[in-house]
Amino acid sequence: EPEVTQTPSHQVTQMGQEVILRCVPISNHLYFYWYRQILGQKVEFLVSFYNNEISEKSEIFDDQFSVERPDGSNFTLKIRSTKLEDSAMYFCASSSEGDTEAFFGQGTRLTVV
Amino acid sequence: RKEVEQDPGPFNVPEGATVAFNCTYSNSASQSFFWYRQDCRKEPKLLMSVYSSGNEDGRFTAQLNRASQYISLLIRDSKLSDSATYLCVVRGSGGGADGLTFGKGTHLIIQP
Fold this sequence. Notes:
The structure holds 2 protein chains of 2 kinds. By secondary structure, chain A is mainly β. Chain A has strands at residues 5-7, 10-13, 19-24, 31-37, 43-50, 53-57, 65-68, 75-79, 88-95, 103-104, 108-112.
């Protein structure tokens, strides 16, 4: 069964450093997303990406964040100048059509120290 | 502001019992509705989509009331493996461009 894969599974970084989280969406999917979940809290939408550009972003997704699809398979989230409060589980997701369900990767646990 | 509200629980239910969860959503323009389940420290996984006419998948039944902006999930003959957090999820009218809005989830514990 096709799945969304994310690397690394766990990333520890020092405050102020930049991190890049990587995702390989399901191959025939058209819409890509990043979500985050702070421990004990709800899953929060960050950004959606379609046709090589951002479709929508939440108020969380400020200038500290950026996304890129550098090639035909990878989808990345870059977080610049990380803060302690960026510590969370980051989920990548993809969907085939606009109104269908999104499939989630297993997540990257980011710990900022 | 888009919000999805759920009772966080926990719901402690004996194996074999029937349990129901509800959620409400604030954005009347919402077009797509889902129930996901999330196991501890894992990714959300789709349980079922929710349609206006109501739909059933085995032991699971979902209902949508657009007028009241209310979604429900019924689990019959509950199994130990049903223990998880159940997430009510809504998508707006923008189709795939819209992100999903998640509730905080309802924690279900099935007891032997």
